[in-house]
Write a structure and sequence with these properties.
The chain is α+β, with helices and mostly antiparallel strands. Helix content is 24%, strand content 35%. It has helices at residues 42-50, 92-102, 107-121, 136-148, 166-183, 194-200, 218-223, 228-233, 269-272; strands spanning 4-13, 16-26, 31-35, 57-62, 65-66, 77-80, 154-158, 186-191, 203-208, 211-216, 240-249, 252-256, 261-263, 279-284, 289-292, 303-315, 320-326, 329-335, 346-352, 357-359, 367-370. The strands form 4 sheets. Strands 6-7-8-3-9-10 form a 6-stranded mixed sheet, with helices on both faces. A 6-stranded antiparallel sheet has the order 13-12-11-14-20-21. Helix 2 runs parallel beside helix 4 (136-148). It is elongated, with a radius of gyration of 25 Å.
């Protein structure tokens, strides 16, 4: 049972701040994902936790122990790398045994641990093979097995699935989730892939330019992004974000943009009143915009309807993804795959009014209005 605590962690390389005053905790048996674009500092953070990089300032605790000055081998953590880092001249058994042998484990204990890990990962029949004889997925399992046999206090993963093809990544995501449940161990996982973070993590730490943007459960970040960076990073396609203004017409608030004039339902008028006569960034996710063909229904407390023009229609099997002209901007909406629609056709777009967001115009574009979920 191990808790990782990161306090005010900073790392600079000459004049470049790679990690800036980062703090978060990984609770006992928790799966925490560090996510963000390339160069945001997530791998550097992982390397500092592992002891592969020396922090410029801040503290790292593994359990109750401050480990800043401990050698990597003394931190009792295991790291799984992106490139697997297997010894090419050793077979799978010796790759998994090497670290234990260096620590002076008895031969019988090594064998027991290797067989246990091999059974968990389904690689017992691969123990006599060398890495060049393995597929990418098999190599990844061996790298995991080498970490498991150590029975560490915590696991660190540095983009371990990025070298696998799309189908195998889906399979390995499920395997890692089952592995976490089975081992009941604290894990910190670095990825730039939002799907990996959303599907596997119990909490996400979102980074940008070395600065933590938001920490929370995956759906909390998805539904309640604190700024446009988080809103735009999570989601495929990302949240629609366009300039807008709240205006009062005939005693009712409307959200006005270059492409639509959206009435705010009566129940939400007090929520949006704070933005009356204010310019802001309007945000709504594509799945909360539904296209249909036919007459425009009456607005309700749950949805507001706007007539717009479809531009690009993409068929994705489970749904249609439709690009809609919105003045000089575009919105991405969804529709039932059975809907017959063509380029340039007028469609009715239903805005789910319970899922609308407002962000400040000024950087970092903080959220100022978010309807109740």
């Amino acid at each position: 049972m191990t808790k990782l605590i990161i306090k005010n962690l900073t790392k600079t390389f000459d004049d470049v701040v790679a990690v800036d005053n980062l703090s978060f905790e990984a609770e006992n048996n928790e799966f925490v994902a560090l996510i963000g674009p390339s160069g945001c500092g997530k791998s550097t953070t992982l390397n500092m936790i592992a002891g592969l990089e020396q922090s410029s300032s801040g503290d790292i605790f593994i359990g109750e122990k401050r480990v800043n000055d401990l050698h990597p081998k003394d931190r009792d953590i295991a790291m799984v790398f992106q490139n697997y880092a297997l010894y090419p001249h050793m077979d799978v058994y010796r790759n998994m045994a090497f670290g234990l042998s260096m620590r002076g484990f008895a031969k019988k204990d090594i064998e027991t641990r290797i067989f246990e890990a091999a059974d968990i990962l389904g690689i017992r029949d691969l123990l006599s093979r060398k890495p060049k004889e393995l597929s990418g997925g098999q190599r990844q399992r061996v790298a995991l097995g080498r970490a498991i046999v150590r029975k560490p206090e915590a696991f660190l993963f540095d983009e371990p699935l990025s070298n696998l093809d799309a189908k195998l990544r889906v399979q390995m995501r499920a395997e890692l989730t089952k592995l976490h449940r089975r081992l009941n161990t604290t894990m910190v996982y670095v990825t730039h892939d939002q799907v990996e973070a959303m599907t596997m993590a119990t909490r996400i730490v979102m980074l940008k330019n070395g600065v933590c943007q938001q920490i929370g459960p995956p759906m909390a970040l998805y539904n309640n992004p604190v700024n446009t960076f988080v809103a735009g990073f999570l989601g495929t396609p990302p949240m629609n974000i366009i300039p807008a203004r709240v205006v009062a017409t005939e005693g009712r608030l409307h959200i006005a943009t270059e492409g639509f004039f959206l009435p705010v339902p009566d129940a939400l008028q007090p929520l949006w009143e704070t933005l009356n006569n204010t310019d802001f960034l309007f945000g709504i996710r594509p799945e909360h915009l539904q296209c249909r063909v036919g007459p425009k229904p009456e607005n309700t407390e749950k949805a507001a309807y706007v007539q717009m023009e479809a531009d690009i229609i993409e068929t994705l099997g489970s749904h249609l993804q439709i690009s809609i002209n919105c003045g000089q901007k575009r919105l991405i909406a969804t529709a039932n795959p059975s809907l017959s629609i063509e380029h340039g056709q007028s469609v009715v777009v239903a805005f789910d009014t319970s899922k609308m967001h407002a962000f400040e115009l000024e950087s970092p574009h903080k959220r100022v209005v978010m309807c109740e979920k």
